[in-house]
Write a structure and sequence with these properties.
It contains 9 helices and 10 strands. By secondary structure, it is of the alpha+beta class. It has a single domain, classed as Oxidoreductase, molybdopterin-binding domain (Sulfite Oxidase, Chain A, domain 2). A 5-stranded mixed sheet has the order 2-1-10-5-6. The longest helix has 17 residues. The chain is globular, with a radius of gyration of 19 Å. The protein binds ligand MTE and molybdenum atom.
């Protein structure tokens, strides 16, 4: 408790110095800071490296992203990025309606898993209506159904030293003359165990369409769209992100986006 208070004070000092026009004094201001609409949140979001530590320090691990009602779903989830992968392994599975699909769970776990879609669907599920925000400047409200990632991690029994979950995808992205690389993403264990982080197989009451990542994609509701890997082939629990891609934790991160895209 004492430590948390000290950390909060330290944060107040930093934020106050950086954002002199926003008056910050005492805990009321801090509570206001936690509101998604608070101007300081946007400023912090642009402060890159600081953002991750500040948000992890200040925002309770289980703080939920806003959820909406059915009537607020105005349109289908707009497909973006890869929408129809042509990678051979994916096409083979797709042609058989994903009957042969197995989600591989490996890395720092006691029990590596190979889960069928039925096995995933038979695990406890969560349905949530949330807003997807893409950095390209659009948002969509949609209803997602899936198994909490925490349940899958518990099933696999994560071992000590685990710091990140890496999502390996089927779709490869062109790098022009440099060839192509498979889409991948990663999150820390706090986001991995967040109650709204689900491996989704359902969208707006129907099986997840190919355009939106069939048969399985992740929803990480306090993050931007590019973190939410579609076409998930495998999940790897790791202590270090440097062995993957260019070592920055994701396809877009390797091209310069922030790894921590917290909202
Ligand atoms: N495998 C994979 N996952 C991906 C992408 C992609 O191209 N490939 N695009 C990302 C981006 S930028 C966004 S905005 C969302 C789009 O999800 P949607 O097609 O369901 O709207 O998926 C993210 N996950
Ligand atoms: Mo996006």
């Amino acid at each position: 408790m004492t430590r948390l208070l000290l950390n909060r004070r330290r944060f107040l000092g930093v934020a106050g110095a950086a954002v002199s026009t926003v008056p910050l004094a005492g805990c009321d201001a801090l509570d206001g800071l936690l509101a998604a609409s608070h101007p300081v949140r946007g400023l912090l979001a642009s402060a890159n490296g600081l953002t991750y530590r500040m948000q992890r320090l200040l925002i309770p691990a289980d703080k939920l992203a806003p959820e909406f009602s059915e009537s607020e779903i105005r349109q289908g989830q707009r497909p973006n990025g890869s929408t129809d992968p042509t990678d051979p392994a994916y096409l083979t599975l797709k042609d058989a309606a994903f009957a042969g699909y197995r989600l591989a769970v490996s890395g720092l776990v006691e029990r590596p898993l190979q889960l069928t879609l039925d096995e995933l669907r038979n695990m406890p599920s969560r349905t949530q209506i949330t807003r997807h925000d893409c950095v390209e400047g659009w948002s969509c409200i949609a209803k997602w159904t899936g198994v909490p990632l925490a349940r899958v991690l518990d099933e696999a029994r994560v071992t000590s030293g685990a710091r990140y979950v890496v999502f390996h995808c089927f779709d490869s992205m062109s790098l022009g003359l440099a060839g192509s690389v498979a889409y991948y993403e990663s999150i820390d264990m706090i986001d991995a165990r967040h109650p709204q982080t689900i491996l989704a197989y359902g969208l707006n009451g129907t099986p997840l369409p190919v355009a939106n990542g069939a048969p399985l994609r992740v929803r990480i509701e306090r993050q931007l769209g590019y973190k939410m890997a579609k076409y998930i082939r495998a999940i790897e629990v790791v202590a270090d992100l440097s062995p993957f891609g260019a070592g920055r934790g994701g396809y877009w991160e390797d091209l310069g986006y922030d790894w921590y895209a917290g909202l």
